[in-house]
Amino acid sequence: MVSKYLAHYPNSLQLQVKDLIDHKKLSHYLLNKYPKKHTLQTDKALYMYVMELKTAHMKKTAPLSKVYYDGKINILKDALGTHTYISRVQGGKLKAKNEIRIATLFKAMPEDFLKMIVVHELAHFKEKEHNKAFYKLCKYMEPNYHQLELDLRVYLTHVDLFGKLYD
Predict the structure, then answer these.
(1) Which residue in 167, 70, 59 sits closest to 117, CA to CA?
(2) Quick one: which of 30, 47, 106, 45 has its CA closest to 74?
(3) Cα-flanking dihedrals φ and ψ of residue 87, to 5°?
(4) CB distance 17 to 26 below 8 Å
(5) C-alpha distances out from residue 59 to 17, 31, 100, Å
(6) How many CA atoms lie within 13 A of 120 on its CB side?
(7) In this structure, what DSSP letter does residue 133 have?
(8) Is the pTM of this model over 0.70?
């Protein structure tokens, strides 16, 4: 096995990544495909980005109250992003509060990877489980979702072995 991030992928794919690692071509592969990081460095810019995606693809879902980069995600939850949906009764009315938190690791990544994780977290507001409907919604919002998820996992393998590519 090449890495924990690729464990559920076919052995043939893991061997391709291992070959890139062994021949010191993993960085080249990633930089060729994703040459630069995005410019969304503030929580406000991230919020606007997420709202654009939500407005374009999920108009009928409850509004988002917060979207921000969270430096504690990797340490506490061993995740890349989280979504929360909290319902509270306030004055006889039911109020919903939706939040998305994205690991700060995504500040220094290509926009494609950021979009993939945002799409993933947005999809959870409609589909709680990782089922067919969930992935269908992800593909609706980002047709290249599965390839981006794989490439993100390859990049995380790179981070584990050699460090970050984008600063």
Answers:
(1) 70
(2) 106
(3) -110, 135
(4) yes
(5) 39, 35, 16
(6) 19
(7) H
(8) yes
User: If residue 102 lies in a helix (H) or strand (E), which one and from where to where?
Assistant: strand 93-103
Radius of gyration from C-alpha coordinates of the chain:
17
pLDDT in tens, 10-68: 999 999 999 999 999 999 999 999 999 999 999 999 999 999 999 999 988 878 888 98
Looking from the CA of 31 toward its CB, the CA atoms found within 13 Å total 9
Is residue 152 within 8 Å of 103, Cβ to Cβ?
no
Look up residue 154 and give its two tokens: 């390859």
Calculate the alpha carbon distances from 102 to 8, 32, 66, 144 in Å. Answer: 23, 25, 11, 20
Q: Which residues pair with 67 in a beta bridge?
A: 100
Exposure string (b/e) for 20-46, b if CB count within 10 Å is 16 or more? bbeeeebbebbeeebeebbebeeeeeb
Element (H, E) at 26: helix 26-33
Task: Evaluate if residue 126 carries a pLDDT over 80.
Answer: yes
Contact of 79 with 64, CB cutoff 8 Å: no
Q: Which residues pair with 64 in a beta bridge?
A: none
